[in-house]
Amino acid sequence: LKTPIASIHGFSRLLAQPGLPEDKQQHYIRIIGQESDRLSRLTSNLVRLSRLDHQSIIQRKAYRFDEQVRHALLLLESQWTDKHLILDLELAEVTVVWEEELMQQVLLNLLQNAVYFSPANGVLSIRLTQATDVTLTITDQGKGISAAELPFVFDRFYQGETSRTTDGHGLGLSIVKRIVELHGGAVTLDSTPGQETSARIQIPQKGPA
Predict the structure, then answer these.
(1) What is the 3-state secondary structure (H, E, C) of 109-170?
(2) Angle of CA points 167, 172, 173, to nearest 5°
(3) Greater model confidence, 113 or 51
(4) Under the phi-then-psi rule, with left for phi > 0, alpha for psi from -120 to 50, and beta for the rest, what region is 135?
(5) What pLDDT, on the 0 to 100 scale, is given for residue 70?
(6) For the whole model, what pTM was predicted?
(7) Which residue from 13, 150, 155, 156 has the least number of CB within 10 angstroms?
(8) DSSP character for 11?
(9) How many Cβ atoms from other residues are within 10 Å of residue 69's Cβ?
(10) Radius of gyration, alpha carbons of the chain
């Protein structure tokens, strides 16, 4: 919390200097706005994670998970079209009994990560299957994650060289992990540096027993 607060404080003082040129004023205002947004995201994620830590019961209902995946992709359409990504989709029709709102957070986080780390004109592969568990695998063709970093990617506040957290504070994957575990499932990340990274969630179709 201290870093964005210090930036806001420092640039607001610079902004108050008399005779400051217009271009510098606008530059400082943009930085203050960006740091305010960052502070807002950080506090929201801290509150969300705190609530999830104290949550053991989820409000489940039956719904089509493959349709939820498609809806999440539509919400992020501007991001993956800006990078001219090719979507390689293989989505089985899957009905689950999960908490839809929480799973939307999981999808948006994992898909935003995959889009962000994908190279322009790359392929984003999404596979949804159902056997004993429901399995969703999202694979991007980004630079990958080193073997040394992989064991720590779900740790809170961890920010490696190739951090997979879109919030930029090392909380995104921690939130994903907690939500998936609340549903009785598991999330893993596999990566080949320089080639690809796959995020995989496996959850019982009806959640925890």
Answers:
(1) HHHHHHHHHCCCCCEEEEEEEECCEEEEEEEECCCCCCCCCHHHCCCCCCCCCCCCCCCCCC
(2) 145
(3) 113
(4) beta
(5) 96
(6) 0.72
(7) 13
(8) H
(9) 20
(10) 19
Angle (nearest 5°) at CA 138 between 133 and 141: 150
| Whole-angstrom distance, CA of residue 141 vs CA of residue 148 | 19
From the list 95, 88, 91, the residue with the least C-alpha distance to 65 is 95
Encoding tokens for residue 94? 């899957």
Name residue, tokens 């989505």. 91
**For the chain, first and last CA: distance in Å?**
38
Q: Which of 16-20, 99-103, 151-155 has the lowest mean pLDDT?
A: 151-155
Order of strands, edge to edge, in the sheet holding 196-204?
86-91, 123-130, 133-140, 196-204, 186-192
